[in-house]
Amino acid sequence: MVGLLGRVTGTIGPGLVGEVILRIRGGAEHFLAYAATPKQRIEVGTLVTVMEHLPPRTVYVTAVYDV
Fold first, then answer.
1. Strand 47-54 to 27-35 pairing
2. pTM of the full predicted structure?
3. Which residues contact 26 (CB under 8 A, 6 or more apart)?
4. How confident is residue 66, by pLDDT bands cut at 50, 70 and 90?
5. What is the pLDDT of residue 67?
6. What sign for the dihedral angle of Cα 56, 44, 7, 14?
7. What is the distance, to the nearest Å, from the Cα of residue 36 to the centroid of all Cα atoms in its chain?
8. pLDDT tens, position by position, 35-60
9. For residue 47, what are the β-bridge partners?
10. What is the 3-state secondary structure (H, E, C) of 29-51?
């Protein structure tokens, strides 16, 4: 899981549980997502990479490109 690229489908930010879609196991699945950096806000549509995975369906992500 760590290092996979995905796309934000639900805004991630302080006090928010966001959502990302990742290509995994031959398909695409949604995971609950938090920002790897505290107080960071990541908007819908942003390309992200998984920094940490907490089974079964939670990931910590960071934006691939700084805006």
1. unpaired
2. 0.93
3. none
4. confident
5. 62
6. negative
7. 9
8. 999 899 999 999 999 999 999 999 99
9. 7
10. EEEEEEECCCCCCECCCCEEEEE
